[in-house]
Amino acid sequence: MTNNKDVSKQLHELVNKTEQTLRLYYNKQKWPSIFPTLAELAQLYAETYQNTPNALHSYLTLHFKQLSPTTNLIVKKCILVCIISQGQGYSYRIRQELLVACLASFLCVKNESDKLLTAKPLTDQGKKIWKIRYQLAVKVLQHGGSVNKQAARMMSRLSPYCDTLKSKRLSPLYDNITLIVAIAQIIATALVQKPKPNALAYAVKKLYLASQNDFVRDTLNKLATQFSHYPVGCSAQYKGQHALLLQKNEKNQIICTFKDHKIDRLVKTQQRLNFEFTPISSADKHLLFKVWSHIESQPLELSPDGFDATYSVIDKLGQNSFSSFRAIEKTIAPFPYIEQALQQAAKQYNRESQKGANTRHCLTMVGLNTASLLCQRVLIEQVISQLKHPFAVDIWHKYQQLSLILATLTKQAYGQAYESILSPISAVIAFMLKHHDIDIKRFTCVSTQSDTATPYSLARLFGFLEFSSDKLDDYFAHHFDNSEPHRAFKQSEREKNNSLSEEAKTFVAIKVLSMMWSSAYFQPTAWQRLVLENQIKKFGWESEEQLHRAILELSLHSMIE
């Protein structure tokens, strides 16, 4: 047992700040401070969960008597989002966005929500406010001079998403970010509104069985897996007393027993107990906060994304001129797991689409000049697959679409030219996942350009206007400074028609084709169509129609937009 007063203080601050934040709406003078307060509170939830996951897991079972029903709901909802984000491996920025949306969702309707959660009727005015609660929240945030665009988008869709998830309708739900908040809201509401034994397991099971959405089911699986790591908050009988599990490891478990609805003692035991999640309503500060000062924290370890380690090898592959396959093998030796990925990537260089037997065979299949580029691309693809994101599957499909369109446009001209064009595309997608993770959306961005002579940024394929120029410059300068194709890609992102090199125009053509095959609303400008037509001729196609027929035969992954 330990004595760590900071833990209990942090938990007390978290809960009380949540209650105070939900009251800010009722004092109009406080509106400008609402968004900064939400951001700070979201950060506090993320940090507290990282430091003391056991304590927050227990709060899903515990009901704070001294807090309003809505505050209890919000606390549970934010904790569920933390658990899901941890299970999915999302970045800190994504967690922050999700938590801000959770906190903002009940910002203007605390009083109405309290009545509904306690089965009290709303007044006519209350019903009107409840109906437009999410629009009101966005307006209040805007009144303060700042609004989180992701949070606003989530709130605009939250109500229909919750309704669809609770029903058995097969309506398509495309925004995975909103789905996470909706899942947390449905489960948290069930825990507060209908507290009963194993309500948590029942709510998760009901959602899982009602949904046919793969992302929803995967999220619920991840949620359940996290409970197996930290089963804190479940109850059992211990020597005739009611007991609550506070910590469990491979050797033993720590429980607290109750007497007259207050903590009686802490017990470390190896005895096997039959646990279940039973709601406990209490105002006992020892149980809710102080007891965690006497329990050794089990902080979560932040799993490295492997970005820096992988890019140190990517840099070597791009900067060195290799005289032998052995030299390339030695360079990629820290990543033995890429052999399988190399085998798959090298298949396209074999007429019978057979994969290489081993790393050396893969490298010889593509030739010495192309081998380092292939290894560089495969390593970047590993980075892409390791950076977790709610739209990871869609991002990967779009990347595959870009590579297939490139191969088709260049008439399957696999080799050094193909790899040199694909390398900047894969590199910028890895950059996007690292630096623009909160900007990515499922659908394309097709808003009108202010300057029709400026090329479409590849960012638009992933739902936002453009990449950060300064960050992209630093990224390319640091990792690909000697690469002509990367310079050409950067040029295609920001320079005008008459300034583009021939290589940059190839990137423009690929982006235009990808947008045409991803969005029914995209219309190329006159100069973009001219560039595309010239590139089609350059690679030996008779017409644009012939090229589109060839792309159609690829059966690209797509979705209705």
Question: Tell me, what is the CATH class of the largest domain?
Answer: Mainly Alpha
The helix content, as a percent range, equals: 55-70%
Mean pLDDT: 88
- Structurally, the number of domains stands at 3
CATH superfamily of the largest domain: Hypothetical protein af1432
Please give the count of helices. 25
Number of strands: 6
Which strand order do you get reading across the main beta sheet?
2-3-4-5
**What gross morphology would you assign?**
globular
Which spans have pLDDT < 50 for at least 5 consecutive residues? none
Radius of gyration: 27 Å
Account of the 3D structure:
The chain is mainly α and 561 residues long. It has three domains: 5-225, Hypothetical protein af1432 (Orthogonal Bundle); 303-386, no CATH class; 390-560, no CATH class. The protein has 25 helices and six strands. The strands form two sheets. A four-stranded antiparallel beta sheet has the order 2-3-4-5. A two-stranded parallel ribbon has the order 1-6. Helix 4 (69-88) runs antiparallel to helix 5 (92-104), helix 10 (176-193) crosses helix 12 (214-229) and helix 22 packs across helix 23.
Show the helix and strand layout:
Layout lengths: L4 H17 L12 H18 L1 H6 L3 E3 L4 H20 L3 H13 L5 H8 L6 H8 L1 H11 L5 H18 L9 H18 L5 H12 L3 H16 L5 E4 L2 E8 L4 E7 L2 E8 L10 E3 L2 H4 L18 H13 L5 H7 L6 H9 L12 H8 L1 H19 L5 H18 L6 H20 L33 H11 L4 H11 L7 H17 L7 H13 L5 H9 L9
Parallel strand pairs: 1-6
Antiparallel strand pairs: 2-3, 3-4, 4-5
